[in-house]
Amino acid sequence: MNIIRENVDEVNILLKIKIEKSDYGEPVAKSLKEYRKNAAIPGFRPGKVPEGIIRKRFGKSILAEEVNKILSESLSKFIVDEKLPILGEPLPNEENQKPIDFENDEDFEFAFDIGLAPEVNITLDKRSKFDYYTIKVDEEMIDKQVEAICSQHGTNEPAPEVVENAMARGDFAQLGEEGNEVEEGIRPEGVLLAIERIKDSEIKSAFTGKKVGDRVVFDPVKAFENRHEVGHMLNISHEDAEALNSNFSFIIKEINVFKPAEVNEDLFKKVYGEDSEVKTVKDFRGKVKEEIAGSLKQSSEYKFSIDTRDALINKTDMALPEAFLKRWLKAKNEKLTDEQVENEFGSFLNDLRWQIITDTIIKENDLKVSDEEALDYARRVAVSQFYQYGMYNATNEQVDSFAKMMLEKQEERERLYRKLYEDKVMAVVKEKVSLREKEVTNDEFTRMMK
Questions:
Q1: Cβ proximity of 31 and 21 under 8 Å
Q2: How many CA atoms lie within 13 A of 148 on its CB side?
Q3: What is the full DSSP assignment across 223-253?
Q4: What is the span of the domain harbouring residue 102?
Q5: Which distant-in-sequence residues (6+ apart) come within 8 Å of 411 by Cβ?
Q6: Of 405, 407, 408, 422, which is closest to residue 369 (Cα–Cα)?
Q7: How many domains does the structure of the chain reveal?
């Protein structure tokens, strides 16, 4: 076997692999022997088929199979042995590829194009200045979060009469043109109405002040202006809801008003547990401020990461095998059109440049992510997800179980490790460059992120 490497330029290689009879002769003979042993051909006992017949019937396909196997192994071994930082996958070079004739030829030559990742020089020192934005936590933000927590832990309590934010439960009865109940009409019972959702002001006013046992007559379609919603409320079909054109009586059976939880020690225990150090309103607001700051820090870190990504991509000189990469993208997905490749290629190149930059920083700084770090991060992700569902006191066993489940899923595991590596890259950047910390309001930060 003969392998010739031709360096087209610093990021493109032409690789020629010549496979001779001495390379494939023995494996082909071995495969033919196996075929002869197992072949079932009419007129011959198993294992007694003449070798000539086996060779004539299967020889060409066996030769092609063994040559392709040797080609694949040789190509992979060359890439590993030469430590080539390849991009994508090797592609056949149509210009240099000679016709392959397994019927008549004994020697076969294959030509491949290979795209390489360039070596890049990334300068990170104190002369480099990067902005880092911190978001100020103001009293309004604390008030809104306290309000949200109180609402989350609020309760529905009985009320003497209907007010705008009340929930009224009652029984419907369809009325005829004379105002009498239709004997075989629509009569859903125990229906819950949110008064504030009523669109028509006159109908909403008709409910205001009513007590349990009172009767309100109204057109539900006019009240809610949405026949699909009315259909669900009255438990009728979509077709019946579309055709509905009548008033209903509604007998109020129950009135409830949602009341947010009060800011007191009971709420502190519900949110942070019985053993929490949060005992006073001042403690509570301080804890809320700390949590908001932690959440906003993630936003600051995210902006720093995208700003850093853009800055390093722009300042790092990097040649890429663009023509090769366009060919590879189309070979990888034959449904992609030339227009789609052109439209998406700029974004693809930037992602690739960033991947090369991060790989370089990881290698130069010997960055590693341990299994313990991955598990710890998975636990933090689990706690965050529990919080989203209002589970503020999840046990260690619940958190560990959820974290391990995430790490068992290959795609989720790769995502977690990728995030940890990027965090380590950002930590290196922060350590080596000069940070210009700037405090901004949440509104200013939001405008910056648009």
A1: no
A2: 11
A3: HHS-HHHHHHHHT--HHHHHH----EEEEEE
A4: 2-116
A5: none
A6: 422
A7: 3
Q: CB neighbours of 72 closer than 8 A, spacing ≥ 6?
A: none
Last residue of a domain, one of 203, 225, 259: 259
Q: How many CB atoms lie within 10 A of CB 82?
A: 13
Beta-strand relationship, 2-9 and 166-174: unpaired
Q: Quick check: helix, strand or coil at residue 48?
A: coil
Q: By 3-state DSSP, what share of the chain in percent is helix, strand and coil, each rounded to 5? A: 50, 20, 30
Please tell me the number of Cα atoms within 13 Å of 50 on its side-chain side. 4
Helix (H) or strand (E) holding 171: strand 166-174
| Strand (E) or helix (H) holding 132 | strand 129-135
Retrieve residue 117's tokens. 């990742």
**172-205 pLDDT per residue, tens:** 999 999 999 999 999 999 999 999 999 999 999 9
Would you state the structure tokens that stand for residue 350, as one six-digit string? 């930037």
Mean pLDDT of 260-281: 91
Q: What is the pTM of this model?
A: 0.70
The number of residues making up the chain comes to: 450
Are 420 and 307 in the same domain?
Answer: yes
Phi first, then psi, for residue 217 (nearest 5°) are: -105, 125
For residue range 349-396, what is the model confidence (pLDDT) as tens digits? 999 999 999 999 999 999 999 999 999 999 999 998 888 877 777 889
